[in-house]
């Protein structure tokens, strides 16, 4: 490796340490020419195979940029976006594969984004999964509602939480139009005649 200070073509390693998560190695180097010291970090190269077949290095900034568009107007800050980008990269590197299809990158984004903001999740999922109709949105919302109900989480769209409203039946409508409908009319019965007891 060339020295970043004097551009000498050779450097020697003084110390090497593996990161806590085991994903990279930190090396302390020294140039024998100018004796300057510097640090390098070696990390496995992660590449993404695009749908066109082109292979390019994984770029966390592109992931964060795409999610940022989905989060426009939502209460999501830059720290949360940066954390999501780190989670996505960790998940992809954790697979142990040096090259991952672009579809797997999208799948790795959906999970953390659903926890971060459900509206942004629906926006991103509608593009990634190519929603073609309102039915696709309703199906996704229904799935979110099923996941939330056991946890006691407030529904994403309250109007859909109780299900579709059914129209009243004809018998119910006619009963409402008649004030006394449905009530049993009281029937008056003549009182029984009293009998007098005579002298014994």
From TrEMBL:
List, in alphabetical order, the Gene Ontology terms for molecular function in this entry: ATP binding; DNA binding; zinc ion binding
Pfam families from the entry?
A: ATP-cone, Zn_ribbon_NrdR
Please state every residue range assigned to the domain named ATP-cone: 46-136
Q: Copy out the cofactor comment.
A: Binds 1 zinc ion.
Give the residue ranges for region: Disordered: 157-200
Q: Which residues cross the membrane?
A: none
Domain of life, source organism: Bacteria
Q: Which UniProt keywords apply?
A: ATP-binding, DNA-binding, Metal-binding, Nucleotide-binding, Repressor, Transcription, Transcription regulation, Zinc, Zinc-finger
Q: Which cofactor does it need?
A: Zn(2+)
Report the record's Gene Ontology biological process terms: negative regulation of DNA-templated transcription
Q: Which InterPro entries match?
A: ATP-cone_dom, NrdR-like_N, RNR_NrdR-like
**Positions annotated as zinc finger (unnamed):** 3-34
Q: Read off the HAMAP family from this record.
A: NrdR
Which family is this protein grouped under?
Belongs to the NrdR family.
* Function (record text): Negatively regulates transcription of bacterial ribonucleotide reductase nrd genes and operons by binding to NrdR-boxes.
What is the name attached to this protein's record?
Transcriptional repressor NrdR
